[in-house]
Amino acid sequence: MSSIIEGYNYDIFISYRQKDNKGDRWVSEFVEALRTELESTFKEEISVYFDINPHDGLLETHDVDESLKEKLKCLIFIPIISRTYCDPNSYAWEHEFKAFVEQASKDQFGLKVKLPNGNVASRVLPVIIYDLSTADISLCESVLDGGLRGVDFVYGELGVNRPLKPDDDDRRNQNKTKYRNQINKVANAINEILAGLKNEPAQKRNLLRKDLRTSDNPTANEKSILVLPFENMSSDTEQEYFSDGLTEEIITDLSHIHELLVISRSSAMTFKGTKFTVKEIAEKVKVRYVLEGSVRKAGNNLRITAQLIDAAYDYHIWAEKYNENLENIFEIQEKVSRSITEALKVKLYPEERKQTSSIRAYDLYMLGRYYWNKRTREGLLASIEYFLKALESDDKYALAYAGLADAYMVCADWNYMQPEISFKKAREYAEKSLSIDSNIAEAYATLADITEIFERNYKKAEGYYQTALSLNPNYASAHQWYGLFLTVFGKFDAASEHMNQAVKLDPLSAIKNGACGLMYYFAESYDKAIFQCKKAVELDPEFPVSVVGFYTFLSYFMKGLITEAIDEYQKILDDNQSLVAYKNRAKEVYDISGIDGFLDFIINLELEFHALSSSPLSKRIISILYALRGNKGKALDYIEASVNEFDTDYIYLNVEPAFKSLRAEPRFIALLRKLGLEY
After folding, report:
1. CA distances (Å), 671 to each of 420, 458, 651, 654, in order?
2. What is the CATH number of domain 221-350?
């Protein structure tokens, strides 16, 4: 067979473990159902490779590498993800799943493709047939370098976890899915990916290939640096976290140099695996210097190479190789940081971060930070497990306590855990971290967030923010959080300085850019708010549209651009699989019932969706919608509930533009007094 795109041997490669096709032959039936669906979806014939061989992989008499090299040269890879598939020792995992990701990442299209609707999708389209453990999900995400997003074929009842079958009753299935509909979703996803590939130019593309330059972007600072992710040269890909951890540690060490602007880890990691030149990368993030390197780890033997480049002139300032025993890893980090600072001729301030003498504790801490940076529920829970294991090896490891504090704080802020419980744990671990090492900026920033939101002691919170920034002026998240803190009290000029610094330090972060948009919305600078919120989604196509989309919607609404506002709300619905069916209905309601009818429609939709799902209800969103609708009583009811339940959104009560009509209301004034927001 051949592909619809010249140069490829198949359109689709279906990978599975033979164990999952025994008995009821689930995989074979799925493949046949998909082929039938593809015939009704495409005019041209779509080629599918499916190995029906009764053994995992090809026969032992075949040259596996050469045979698979040709068969894996396909456009879309569909792994049947099960509990048995997630086995690093299996043939399908090592020679098919990982091999395709590596091969596709280097071919003319890259691993991800821009769809006709502007979204971005991976060429790996997982079909998930069991609810997976956190470890299995993390394992898949470590290969995909992103979230595990696929089509769910899981049938769930109390005590039941098995693949969905054609004759299953969706009313009894807790996931409420129908086999026929899920097959259609797979075919539609294939259709979108293939359409995107057809539209792509025949050259290696990358998600970062965007013009990020705006009039507000800074020019390259003379003393500024980006540390590129150190490349893992080890044969064991599970050591990827180690090279990422080394990158993070060097960034952290350099961040303590007060004269040096250091791009944060989240922006640095965006360039992992890309083929941009150093000069191109430096131009994107506006830095003068770039550090790149590699790590080769075999047992306890470690070899690190590093080189510092002046990107303005494409000139190698410094290069070094380190051949060490793993036990000396901390000394190696110090050597690399010291050499860079000497080359840049800046003074290294004497603040030192205490490390641990336990190599196992350090490895576990690096794993914790690896999963914490994913910001998913599963990733955060995994990070907590690793930080706790690190403390089992060294119960005086201050950074591990700080990691736990960060994990619990984010769980509260993102509604992954009950805020009152999560904030309490975050405080406990932050204070424990500082009792061991009083110079850890992360712990102070975490304490600031807790003190602001949960204790409502704003002067004390501001002191914590300022301490964090004095210890580490390059801590982008502290600038972001402090900027939002200043926003709460309407200090928009000062807030803007810190928010812009956060974006400057972490220019490719969707979170930082989105937070900047939030600040501009509260400042009623709606055009800037729209620009920053849209930029956040452009920077990370996997970033949930609803996180910033609601503020884009509100900004258009406040400007009186109702048609544009409705378009933005439709994007929010389109991004949520449970709400996408209502996408077209939103515009129809407005055409028939006007703006009041549209607002009623949104309110009912938010309430109904919450009632039918486990998603937490944003009382602030409901209160804003009721305020815009002119129902002051209902708006105040939901505001009071938000305040009483320590909803993290209540803090912006006094600067919310939608609440202008409420500010003279006695109940609203009483709430402001209760919160102490006259500060």
Report:
1. 20, 16, 11, 10
2. 3.40.50.10610
What is the tens place of the pLDDT at every residue in 64-119?
A: 455 677 788 899 999 999 988 988 888 888 889 988 988 888 787 888 887 776 66
Q: Do domains 10-199 and 221-350 have the same CATH topology?
A: yes
Residue 629 C-alpha from the chain's centroid = 34
Are the C-beta atoms of 464 and 447 separated by less than 8 Å? yes
**Residues ≥6 apart with Cβ < 8 Å to 190:** 11, 12, 38, 41, 46, 76, 125
Residue-wise burial string across 40-53, b where 16 or more C-beta atoms lie within 10 A, e elsewhere:
ebeeeebbbbbbee
Q: How far apart are CA 653 and CA 639, in angstroms?
A: 8
d(CA 567, CA 564): 5
Other beta carbons less than 10 A from residue 310's beta carbon: 17
pLDDT, tens digit (0-9, with 9 covering 90-100), for 162-183: 999 999 988 888 878 899 999 9
Superfamily of 10-199 according to CATH: Toll/interleukin-1 receptor homology (TIR) domain (3.40.50.10140)
Tell how far CA 163 is from the center of its chain. Answer: 28
β-strand 10-15 against 261-262: which pairing, if any?
unpaired
- Cα angle 537, 419, 660; round to 5: 65
Tell me the domain boundaries of the chain.
Answer: 10-199, 221-350
Are the CB atoms for 316 and 338 separated by under 8 Å?
Answer: no
State how far the Cα of 433 lies from the Cα of 575, in Å rounded to an integer: 39
Handedness of CA 325, 331, 337, 339 (dihedral sign): negative
**CA distance linking residue 318 with residue 664, whole number of Å:** 64
Read off the tokens for 187. Answer: 């075919």
pTM: 0.59
